[in-house]
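Researcher: Checking consistency across runs. Here is PIN domain-containing protein again:
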Amino acid sequence: MSRLTSLHLLDTDVVSTLSRPNPDPQVAEWFARAEPGTLAVSWSTVFELQFGVELARRGGSPHADTFERNLLGVLRNRRFRVLLPTVEAARQRARMFATPELRGFFAAKPDARKPRFGEDLTIAATAMSVGAVIVTMNSKDFLLIAGHFTLPGVLHPATGEWTVQPPSGSAAVPKSLRRSSELFATTHRTHRITAGRQSWIERAPACSEPAKS
């Protein structure tokens, strides 16, 4: 199986943050400084975001159309690869679903407001199948998964902290990203960006052609 090197898989919370008109400035700066061809999202993130759109629409929310425009902005952004399901990811996901300690990711409580589909497990399985570092602000859940499976690395984009260190010398982590201090040595600008309802990610500068795998 060919591996995608220098790849960072963005969790849904990171993509959602970047889709806002005024995202967390530290997350936005991390995104802006990432090397061309190193960013990806899982098909499961597309599912989660579209599911949120449909719930908002069925609930009569006036923001449903805005949420969908934000999602389309992500899908049109050439900085991302969208990783589709593969046999290896499916097998890894099955192993995770069969792990009793991880049932809480998909077995919703009776009084839960919305169902749980185990998308964190799907993202983790996808990352393992291609050797991608998981970029998330939800470190706690992925640390739990890492207690049972060897993840390629888990990075918090706003703090630069590694919840799960990548394997030493791993090709999954570009040299410019291996030391989080390199990303956060400069003072973060906290200016607000305003452009109507357009999401920040739609205004982010496009990179050159993604690196070929």
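Researcher: Does this match what you'd expect to see?
Model: One thing to look at in this run: Residues 87 and 129 are 9 Å apart (CA to CA).
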